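Thread: quick sanity check before group meeting

JM: Hey all, I'm pulling together slides for Thursday and realized we never actually wrote out the predicted structure for the chain we discussed last week. Dropping the sequence here so it's in one place. If anyone has concerns about the input, flag it before I start.
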Amino acid sequence: MADLFKTLSKAARLVRKGRPMSALIAMQDGLKPTAAPRTRLPKAPRRKQAKPAAARQPRPAPGTFGAHEFDCRHGAIHFRLYTPRGPKRRNRPLVVMLHGCSQTASDFATGTGMNELADELGCLVLYPQQSQRANLARCWNWHRPRNQARGEGEPALIAALTRHVLAIAAGNSERVFIAGISAGGSAAAIVGAAYPDLFIAVGVHSGVARGTIRTLPSALAAMRGDRRAGFTGRATRPLPTIVFHGDEDRVVHPSNAAGFLNTLERSQPGPLISRTYYGKSDKGRDFTRKVYRSSSGNTLLEDWTIHGSGHEWSGGSASASYTDPLGPNASREMMRFFLSQRRAN
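JM (edit): ok, ran it. Output follows.
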C-alpha cells in the first residue's frame, strides 16, 4: 500500500511539472504486479548407474567357506566358495570343483581336502552344487545334448557362475581350472572344452571322455566300457588334462581313461613324447603315471591309474563319501598340474 501512495505522489509531481507522459510511465511501472521471488527448484537427484550384482557384494573374507546362490538367464544354482586364509589378496587362481552323484558341495570339499590345499597354495575354490530339481541323485546331466555345448544348459550356467565368482573374489581370470569326479568329471571335460577362453586346464577323476553320447542309455553303455560311445574322426585340441582312474572301478569302467588320450591323438597335436612312471603312495597303493608331452615340451595329458582302487577320489579323506585314503593324493597332483599351466598365446 505504501508503494502505491509513493507512485501516485510521483505521478502528480510530474503532471504539475508539465510532464504527463513521464507521469503515465511512472504510473504503469508502479502498478505492475510485483514479481514473485524466484524459487530455485531443488535439483533432481542424479541417478546412479546400477552396478552389477558382483560389484555390490563385498569380497569374501579370508578363511571363509560361504554358502551362496547364483541366478542368471541360464538358471539358478547353489554354490560354496572357499577363500584361503592369509592376507586379502587379488588375482588368486580359481579351481572349480564338480562333485559326483549323491554328493554335496560340502561333502566333496571334505573328501578332496581342496580347502586345506587352497590355504597352502593361495587359491580360491568354487564348488557348484547340482540341484535335486535338476537331477534327483544330484548328478550333473552331462549325457544330455543341451548340456554338451557352449551357450546353453549346465555348461553355460557353470561358466557364468565362474565369471561371477572371479568378480566378487577378485580372482585371476588367466588362471582358472576345472575338475570333478564321476558325473562331475565328465561334466568338467565338457565345460572345459566348451569354454577354452575361460578355463586353461581340466582334471577328471573316474569320468568319461567327451564322445557321441546323447542319451542316458548311451551314457550307461560308456560307463560299462562300451567303446562305441566314443568320438571318431578329427577332434578339437583339448585343454591340458590330468586324469585319475582306479583299475577296480565298478561304476565307470577303467577303459574310459583311454578316451582322453584318444581325443588328444585325434586332435592331431603332432608327435607325442610319452613317458611312464611307476610308484607307490605313502599308504601302499601302487600307481602308474603316464605323461604325454608335445615336441616343444608342453605337458598335454597326464594319465594316472591307481591299482586296487575303485570309484573313489584317490588320497581323499575317510570322513567323506567316495574316497580312497590309501591312494596317492589326487588333489595335490591336480594342483601341481594346474599351477604349472599357462594360457596358450
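AS: nice. Residues 63-270+309-339 form a domain with the Rossmann fold fold (CATH 3.40.50.1820). Residues 1-5, 19-39, 47-52 have pLDDT under 50 and may be disordered.
JM: adding both to the slides.
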